[in-house]
Design a protein that fits this description.
Elements: E1 4-7, E2 10-13, E3 18-24, E4 33-39, E5 46-52, E6 59-60, E7 68-73, E8 78-83, E9 92-103, E10 106-113, E11 117-122
Amino acid sequence: EVQLVESGGGSVQAGGSLRLSCAASEVDAESKCMGWFRQAPGTDRIGVAGIYTDGSSPYYHDSVKGRFVISRDNAKNTVYLQMNSLKPEDSAMYYCASRCLVVSNHLLGFGTWGQGTQVIVSS
């Protein structure tokens, strides 16, 4: 079974940047998409960004378009989320999922989940 480990979270001031990493223990042969999700206390988990194995255009939630970039290094079985121009509302626990799917313009995650990495953005 694929295992995912997220890292790279931390505390930054508004306007700063962080790069999150999601390292997979092995390739999920049935995965067509890997995604990043976030959940702030008292809110639902939302899909932030998804990247496809076939090179299709990535998915971004409207709230992060133009600020976040998702990428992958196949040789390292790792997916990254570069987060720029961070805002306090980006503060959340960030998770990656080994599989994802876009439904009605919402990114849904399934398969294996990592344990999460905390991002705190102060104003």
